[in-house]
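call fold(seq) -> tokens
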Amino acid sequence: MLALKVTTIGNSVGVVLPKEMTAKLKVKEGDTLYLTETPDGYRLTPYDPEFERQMQLAEELRRERRNVLHELAK
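ret:
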């Protein structure tokens, strides 16, 4: 478990991520992190959950319509 201290950053508040955490998340200054609520608490990730959902829907559509897509590719 890692405790993060909330600190003032300009007119806002934020947390500073330790170097080890940014390395594990593979993020650097300027990158975007996404905080999503889960049944167990919160999840912090560099991956956009909305984009992931859209890609899953696209994959389902590709599977369902593979014959149509195959014909269009000719």
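The chain has a mean pLDDT of 88.
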